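// run 5 | inverse folding | seed 20
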């Protein structure tokens, strides 16, 4: 048991404040997107996944190509929001 706890303690902190805030923001985008555009309940799950993936991509991509812009703590809000919205519209387009 001690060995398992030791291995788990070496894993990165997956519940960092930035990660939690990113999940809250991307979930809000997905819920608002579905509320504005309507649709079945099943679409909400697709929108949650698309928004979360887009938010993560938008958050991580600028580290390689651009200097830091508008941030909310560790979150690159503008770039992450653009990524989330782009994948939300792509998901909507693919489901139509």
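// decoded
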């Amino acid at each position: 048991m001690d060995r398992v706890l030791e291995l788990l303690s070496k894993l990165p902190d997956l519940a960092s404040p930035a990660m939690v805030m990113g999940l809250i923001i991307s979930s809000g985008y997905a819920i608002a997107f579905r509320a504005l555009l309507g649709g079945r309940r099943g679409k909400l799950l697709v929108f949650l996944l698309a928004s979360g993936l887009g938010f993560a991509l938008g958050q991580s991509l600028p580290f390689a190509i651009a200097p830091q812009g508008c941030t909310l703590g560790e979150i690159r809000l503008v770039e992450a929001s653009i990524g989330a919205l782009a994948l939300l519209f792509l998901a909507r387009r693919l489901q139509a």
